Amino acid sequence: MKKPSLRAVAAAAAALAVLAPAAACSAKASGSGGDHAKVAFLMPDIASTRYEQYDAPLFKAKMKQLCGGCDVLYQNANADAAKQQQQATSALAQGAKVIVIDPVDSAAAASIVRMAQSRKAAVIAYDRPIPAAKADYYVSFDNEKLGHMIGQSLVDHLKETRAQGGLLEVNGSPTDAAAGLIKKGVHSAVDPSGFKLLAEFDTPGWEPAKAQEWVTGQISKFRGQIAGVVAANDGTGGASIAAFKAAAAKVPPVTGNDAELAAMQRIVAGDQYNTISKPIRIVAEAAAVAAHGFVKGEKPKGNATLFGTPSELFVPTVVTQQNIKDVVKPGGALEPAQVCTGVYAASCAKLGLR
To answer: Any signal peptide, and if so, which residues (predicted)?
Structure first.
C-alpha cells in the first residue's frame, strides 16, 4: 500500500485540529440543550391586561437577548386551572426544559411542579408562589410587604384627613397564594389602625365584575359609613370605584396595585388614591435570566426563601398624586403621552406631568 506523503499527513492533522474544537463545542451544546432549549411561559389570565401587554413580550425579548436559539412557548390559561395543566403537559411533551408559571390556582399548580420535575424540567414560580410543592425558583415582588404598603398608605391618608367611618377590604382570588400574602400584609396595616373593618371579600379569579357586585351590596349595607376601600389590585380597585359611581355615592379613597394605565389615569383624575408600581420588566427579565441559568445547568440562588423555595423578591413603590410624576415620566414604563390623553390632560398639567 502506498504510504501517504508528509504533506498529506500534515494537511489531515491541520483539518483535525480545526474540526476537534467545533465538534466538542457541538457536543457540549447538544448535551446541555443550552443554545436551542425550549422554555415555557405560562400566564394565568387575560382579565389583568399586564400579561399580554407586558409580561410575555418582555420575557420573550430578554430570552432572545440571552439565548438567540431558545424557543419560548407562551400560553395564557384565561383563568382556567385545568387548561393551564394541559398547557404545561403540552409544553413538556414539546421538550420544554424550563417552565415559568404564574399559576391560576396555586394549590392545583403543585401537580405541574411534580410532573415537570419528574421529567427533569425546572419550574420557576412567577409572581405567585406555589406553597404545596417546592418549585426550583420563585421570582416576584414581595407581596406581603406590598399589601402592607397599600394598606398603610391608605390608613395614613385617612388619619391625615381625619376621615370617619370604617373600611372595606377587597382581596384577590382565594386560589392565588400571592393574593393570600397581599391579604396578610393588608391586615397587618388595617387591623391595628383604629379603623373598623366593616367587611372583606375574596374576589374569585380576581374578576372585577364580581368585586363590583360585592362592593355594590356593601354600599347599600353601610351607606355613609365607608371611609375607604383597600383593594388588592387595580382591577378590583377600578371595580370598587365603578360601584360607588353607579350607586351615586361619594367615592372614598380606594387603593390598587399594578400601576395599570387606567389606574394611573384614575389617580390623576382623583378617583383612585394609590396603586403599586412594580415594573414588570424587573420580574420578567429576572425570570428570563433564571430560566437561562437553568438551561445552562446553573441554578440561581436568589435573595430569600419562601415556602422552602429559593426566591428573588423585589420591593415595590406606592404611587399617589404626590409622587406620580416620579413614575410617569419620559422613558418610564408609562410615559406622560400615554397617561395624559383627552380629559386627563388638564389634571396631568396640575400634577406636573409633561
So the answer is: 1-29
